[in-house]
Design goal:
CATH superfamily of the domain at 19-121 and 302-383: RlpA-like domain
Structural class: alpha+beta
Largest sheet: 6 strands, mixed, barrel
Number of helices: 10
CATH architecture of the domain at 19-121 and 302-383: Beta Barrel
């Protein structure tokens, strides 16, 4: 699943790149952080229980900097965590017990240790049709058969002198297509797919939707399409064309002020102010393109769980492991600090100081997500070393 607000801006990193991804986390003193969850805990318990099931099923290896913990061991620690927050102890006693059982790891951050930029994502609900109409004129495509993956890490493993990116910028897989000459070339771009119709006639259309909504649905990576006859279609992220993500907000600076910049404002500009030529140029500036699969159930995270409102976060999986418990504290005192679970990721979510918070489904959630950009601090919890 993908994030939303980073579509609007290009966030730079003030700190130097990491030499090793193991350095993305470091242990910190629990006494330096007040672990007080300011939300109701039922949602947290439900999210944790599902997370535990997935940990036991997948048995992943979880990275906390240079420390590795098995999924099964971590699942057992989360069972203990649930027991603590379910207890009748005071909030202070619960915090003491948590710090007694868990080590705390702070993230490398954007500008300093623990500091992150928090944006929000949601599940869009948009109108759709099984057939093309004058308004619902953009198809949502399923994954094409000619899309192939090239595993760069395998080339690096076999050829010692094969290097593409530094460790922080590394792309582990390229997407491409095989030509008639048996060459692997980059897969089609958004311009070629949306405006040159290179996939037309291949019977890949899942549904037809508004072009602007189609673009933002790809940013989110999943959503719900309302079809005629009160039937619903959930579309889940299936794959991506391998092109780099480019935030279209960058193309609109000077046309929309930074104070106005939001998802809603960008949508209105594209629909009401942009010429046909400018509309095409703006959308095509983001060559990245997402393919979907049709499902009957709401979207799931990259970890394999349901998304949980105000509890699921998405991060860059090169640095932080899905399935891990964290504490997110906002600099803005009016936004509740809370325990969250790292369960998701996204193609545009890059960097050790970026976090996306899932905030729900539908229009209200979208309006909230479209303007949400807050600074905070992020700490991961791991069972204490024996």
């Amino acid at each position: 699943m993908k994030n939303l607000l980073l579509v609007l801006f290009l966030f730079g990193c003030a700190r130097s790149l990491l030499k090793k991804t193991d350095d993305a986390l470091r242990e910190t003193s629990p006494e330096s952080v007040i672990l007080e969850d300011e939300l109701e805990t039922n949602s947290l318990i439900k999210a944790l229980e599902e997370n535990i099931t997935q940990l036991k099923k997948n048995k992943p290896l979880l990275n906390f900097g240079n420390r590795i913990i098995s999924g099964e061991v971590y699942a057992d620690s989360l069972v203990e965590f649930i027991a603590i927050i379910k207890s009748n102890d005071s909030s202070l006693e619960k915090e003491r017990r948590i710090k007694e059982k868990f080590d705390l790891y702070e993230v490398y951050g954007r500008d300093d240790w623990s500091e992150v930029l928090v944006t929000a994502y949601y599940t869009p609900v948009i109108q759709g049709s099984r057939y093309k109409t004058p308004i619902l004129s953009r198809p949502l495509y399923k994954k094409p058969d000619d899309l192939v993956k090239v595993d760069v890490k395998e080339f690096q493993r076999v050829f010692d002198d094969f290097h593409v990116f530094s460790e922080e910028e590394e792309i582990s897989r390229f997407r491409g297509r095989i030509t008639e000459e048996k060459k692997i070339v980059p897969y089609w771009s958004r311009e070629q797919i949306d405006f040159q119709d290179v996939l037309k006639g291949k019977k890949l259309e899942l549904a037809w939707v508004d072009p602007v909504e189609a673009f933002f649905l790809q940013i989110q990576g999943s959503g719900k399409v309302d079809l005629p006859g009160k039937s619903d279609l959930y579309v889940h992220y299936e794959d991506q064309n391998g092109h780099d993500y480019h935030p279209i907000g960058k193309e609109l600076l000077g046309k929309i002020s930074m104070e106005e910049m939001s998802m809603q404002r960008i949508k209105s500009y594209l629909r009401e102010e942009a010429s046909e030529e400018e509309f095409r140029k703006i959308l095509s500036s983001d060559s990245s393109y997402v393919f979907f699969r049709a499902e009957k159930t709401p979207p799931i995270t990259s970890f394999g769980t349901q998304v949980h409102e105000n509890r699921t976060i998405a991060t860059d999986v090169r640095f932080y492991s899905n399935g891990t418990l964290a504490f997110l504290k906002f600099d803005n005192k009016f936004i509740p600090s809370r325990f969250v679970i790292d369960q998701d990721t996204g193609g545009g979510l890059k960097g050790r100081g970026r976090v996306d918070l899932y905030v729900g489904e539908g229009q209200k959630a979208g309006e909230f997500a479209g303007g949400f950009k807050e600074k905070g601090k992020l700490y991961y919890l791991a069972p204490k070393r024996l």
